[in-house]
Write a structure and sequence with these properties.
The complex is a heterodimer of chains A (133) and B (329). Chain A has 133 residues and is α/β, with parallel strands linked by helices. Chain A is 42% helix and 20% strand. Chain A is built from 5 helices and 5 strands. In chain A, helix 2 crosses helix 3 and helix 3 runs parallel beside helix 4. Chain B contains 11 helices and 8 strands. In chain B, strand 7, helix 7 and strand 8 form a beta-alpha-beta unit. The longest helix of chain B is centred in the C-terminal third of the chain and has 30 residues. Chain B starts with a helix and ends in a 5-residue tail after the last helix. Classes of the chains: A alpha/beta (133), B alpha/beta (329). The structure holds guanosine-5'-triphosphate (GTP) and magnesium ion. Guanosine-5'-triphosphate (GTP) binds next to helix 4 of chain B.
């Protein structure tokens, strides 16, 4: 009972394409790795996503992109997270992300980008090693 | 966490600080240092919310119904806390918490706090942490707490002993299973909800359920479970109905509890359950702590493995040594 800390992750699909298979696969992979994963589904507002991170007291927020909104949406998330003083939450991005976007995203404040095809062991290990709480 | 940080944490929580509420829940859920202190301080501020349990099979519409009920309670000016419990994987300990998806419209409402938690190994039941979390949300100060849990109607559902009013949600497709569950349901449910009443077979199923209630041997003066139809999704908003009647029935049941003095009995049951759970975990902690470094735990397990002893005898021996004779020691 003493110190049964589980890693809590919030995952949301971002974008208007209406496909969230990739996001759901990530959710189940993280679950298989022993994490507790809140899945928010698709078509979420920036404020709602961040409020969910606050209310769930998540360790990690994962944004899943498929159709190219990452450079527009991510800075809004980062700003809203700052507003809510969520600097101890690990922000990661996944999905079909062009290589050239990675440094841009990292500059915005994303800690790590996992492109489609990343091994699950890779992001599980990354999360386990890097959570800040 | 330092003890004075805990004091500060609880003070802010009692002041209505939502972020602190979220953090306190995590601390207690994970059994982190200070969680006993938190619960001791929180306890005097609990016991004021009306607790509504919503249970039923997977996909019955519990979350969709919860979403509508939240909206209705808010319209009535009530603040609402919601605890969504999903099962942990018995193999990996991980969990997919997917109920929140259905409750998006309340994301920005300061009068609603929603928390998703994993059951962490308690089958069909709720863990000690779940009860603690409900207490913490009560202390934070909401009028109503809704607790959604998975339950098929066959296994023991702990929320019954805890909630003031318990809703069991069915769907027309489950008609075949009903026979086996009848007895159990009537013990559990204060309100039997026939959700997805837009689907075929709903009317027949409702008739069967009502028949079961009538035929049941309900003692004089006891609450008679109500069977209520509900439609939670439809292309036409006008077709969504049944939830006002559900709210009405919840209050009717609550008033009944008041009148019949059952509220005190529920409080008693609730404490009995909590005391048992706390005692279990504290005793286990204490004993394992005591065994630590003695090599005894390993010795016991090896003795069982070697066929020289069995778990029951070992536990008896441990209890004899560490607990039962403590007074004489
Ligand atoms: N036709 C119909 N579908 C409904 C109704 N209520 C809910 N649903 C649908 O049933 C599905 C499951 O709904 P949920 O609210 O997630 O069910 P749940 O009981 O919370 O499910 P779990 O938490 O996974 O056990 C969703 O696709 C809902 O849209 C209803 O009244 N009629
Ligand atoms: Mg649900």
């Amino acid at each position: 009972m003493e110190n049964d800390k589980k890693i809590k992750v919030v995952i949301t699909k971002v974008g208007l394409d209406g496909h969230d298979r990739g996001a759901k696969i990530v959710v189940s992979l993280l679950k298989e790795a022993g994490m507790e994963v809140v899945y928010l589904g698709m078509f979420n507002q920036v404020e709602d996503i961040v409020q969910a991170v606050v209310d769930e007291d998540a360790d990690v927020l994962g944004l899943s992109y498929l159709s190219g909104e990452q450079l527009i949406f991510t800075p809004k998330i980062v700003e809203e997270m700052k507003k809510n003083e969520l600097d101890d939450v690990l922000l990661i991005v996944g999905g079909t992300i062009p290589v050239e976007d990675i440094p841009l995203l990292e500059e915005m404040g994303v800690e790590r980008v996992f492109r489609a095809g990343s091994l699950s062991s890779e992001f599980v290990e990354y999360i386990e090693k890097n959570i800040k709480k | 966490m330092m003890e004075n940080n805990i004091d500060e944490m609880v003070r802010k929580l009692l002041d209505g600080d939502r972020r602190m509420l979220a953090r306190t829940i995590t601390l207690v859920e994970n059994g982190r240092k200070g969680h006993r202190n938190v619960m001791r301080q929180v306890y005097p501020h609990t016991g004021k919310a009306m607790i509504v349990g919503i249970t039923g099979a997977g996909g019955a519409g519990k979350s969709t119904l919860t979403d509508i009920l939240i909206a209705k309670f808010r319209k009535m000016g009530k603040t609402v806390g919601v605890v969504l419990v999903d099962p942990s994987s018995p193999f990996t300990g991980g969990a997919m918490l997917g109920d929140r998806i259905r409750m998006k419209k309340h994301a920005q409402d300061k009068g609603v706090y929603i928390r998703s938690i994993a059951s962490r190994g308690t089958m069909g039941g709720l863990s000690r942490a779940t009860y603690d979390i409900i207490r913490i949300i009560e202390a934070f100060g909401v009028d109503i707490i809704i607790v959604e849990t998975l339950g098929t109607g066959q296994d023991e559902i702990d929320i019954v002993h805890f909630a003031h009013t318990c809703l069991v949600v069915f769907t027309p497709g489950m008609g075949d299973d009903i026979q086996a569950m009848k007895a159990g349901i009537l013990e559990i449910a204060d309100l039997i909800i026939m959700n997805k009443a837009d689907l075929e077979g709903a009317e027949t199923f409702i008739r069967h359920l009502k028949g079961a209630v009538t035929a049941a041997d309900i003692p004089e003066g006891a609450w008679v479970p109500k069977v209520l139809p509900s439609i939670c999704v439809s292309d036409k908003p006008a077709n969504i109905k049944g939830q006002d009647e559900i709210i009405e029935a919840i209050y009717e049941h609550f008033a009944f509890l008041h009148k019949s003095k059952s509220l005190d009995a529920i409080k008693f049951q609730r404490l009995e359950l909590e005391l048992g759970l706390i005692l279990n975990s504290e005793l286990q902690n204490l004993i394992f702590k005591g065994l630590k470094g003695t090599g005894l735990k390993k010795k016991y397990i090896n003795a069982i493995l070697g066929g020289e002893n069995d778990p029951y005898s070992v536990v008896r021996e441990i209890l004899d040594t560490y607990v039962l004779h403590r007074k004489d020691a």
